[in-house]
Design brief:
This protein has about 160 residues and is mainly beta. The protein contains one helix and five strands, in the order βαββββ. The protein has one helix at about 40-55; strands at about 20-25, 60-65, 80-90, 95-105, 110-125. The protein is elongated, with a radius of gyration of 16 Å. Residues about 1-5 and about 145-163 have low confidence and may be disordered.
Length: about 160
């Protein structure tokens, strides 16, 4: 997959493994211009990030930030949109996830294009909505963003490093 926007760098999709979610875009999802409504894509970005973040905890997570979302390609009816997610870092109460969005143009020749990317930050909260520490152990024992080889547990897919 190649970059389709000259001023933005994108990570390699192969680094992400399987998508967190995949969705076929339908006519009901269009805006007045006939392309898929950007707010719908934002909603799926949040959901895909949450799927990844919940690998770090079984607790209640709230979205507290979505950093810079630039749509670099439109999404059309019939596109199969994949939302790839990877944990960037884990703080005391928060988890930052990078989400990369691609579209497979199933009705337009099958090309795959990058649509956008975002960093989404989630905070674990208690029943009263107060931030609470993440568990010391990851529920299923899988990696959860802590990479001691990089400063502050950041990985090379930190969107702030991609620009």
């Amino acid at each position: 997959m190649s970059d389709n926007h000259p001023t933005q760098s994108f990570p390699d999709v192969a680094e992400y493994g399987e998508p967190a979610i995949r969705v076929m875009m339908m006519p009901k999802d269009t805006n007045a211009m006939g392309t898929i409504f950007g707010g719908l894509i934002l909603s799926y970005i949040d959901q895909a990030g949450a799927v990844e973040a919940h690998k770090c905890t079984n607790g209640l997570l709230l979205t507290v930030a979505v950093h810079e979302v630039d749509f670099v390609a439109p999404v059309f009816v019939g596109d199969l949109v994949s939302f790839y997610a990877r944990t960037l870092r884990r703080g005391r109460t928060s988890i930052s996830v990078h989400v990369l969005v691609t579209a497979e143009r199933r009705l337009r020749g099958g090309d795959k294009v990058i649509v956008t990317q975002a960093e989404v930050v989630y905070v674990q909260v208690d029943d009263q909505g107060r931030p609470t520490p993440l568990p010391a152990e990851v529920p299923d024992g899988s990696p959860c963003g802590d990479d001691p080889a990089t400063p502050e547990g950041r990985t090379d897919n930190n969107p702030s490093k991609l620009r």
